[in-house]
Amino acid sequence: MKKTRIIPSLFLTAILVIVAGSCSTDECYDNRNALPYAGFYGIMDGKMTTISVDSMRVYGIGAPGDSILSEGNHSIGNLYLPFRIDSDTTSYVFKLVNKALESYDVCDTVTFIYTREARFVSSACGASYIYTIKDIRNTGLLIDSITVTDGRITNADSENIQIYFNTGETAED
């Protein structure tokens, strides 16, 4: 009767996995896609500050599949707003789902208008897009204004959109 040697086989398998893993590259794990990252701002105690908005649902308009970015079941102060690569516009609805305001249908529609530029990253990662903002429109009920820091959304892993919410206060000079 022949004994099977399991331990050497496991050892050999482990070595092969380690060697194969060391040949892979981390370049695609870095932020290689232009994902717009938005921070929320408002005026509190007369000063512009970062804020969190409670019970706000955020979802895309005309997006294929599930386009809900926030269900509205927690407080959010920032989120990623992916842009469409098959269109020069992307629209989102920001809707308060607070029980006290639910019957009032308090929401804003925000539309980003941009140009898209495909940029080759590498053979391993493919291409990513750079978005140059031409215009931003919003209905103005919840959101006072929106800015894009340098007018472009690149693959820099940083906040590049600031959304300023109406808080009922005015800034001190």
Jot down its keywords.
173 residues, mainly beta, 6-stranded antiparallel β-sheet, 5-stranded mixed β-sheet, 1 helix, 43% strand, globular
Regions with little confidence, pLDDT below 50 for 5+ residues = 6-24
Fraction in helix = under 10%
Number of helices: 1
For the terminal residues, how far apart are their CA atoms? 91 Å
Strand content: 35-45%
Indicate the multimeric state. single chain
Q: Note the overall shape.
A: globular
Radius of gyration over all CA atoms, rounded: 23 Å
Order of the strands making up the biggest sheet = 4-3-6-7-8-10
Secondary structure: number of strands: 11
User: What is the average of the pLDDT values?
Assistant: 79
Could you describe the largest sheet, including whether it forms a barrel?
Answer: 6 strands, antiparallel
Give me the secondary-structure category. Answer: mainly beta
Order of helices and strands: HEEEEEEEEEEE
Topology:
Elements: H1 6-22, E1 37-44, E2 47-50, E3 56-61, E4 68-70, E5 78-80, E6 89-96, E7 107-122, E8 126-138, E9 143-148, E10 152-153, E11 161-165
Parallel strand pairs: 1-11
Antiparallel strand pairs: 1-2, 1-5, 3-4, 3-6, 6-7, 7-8, 8-10, 9-11
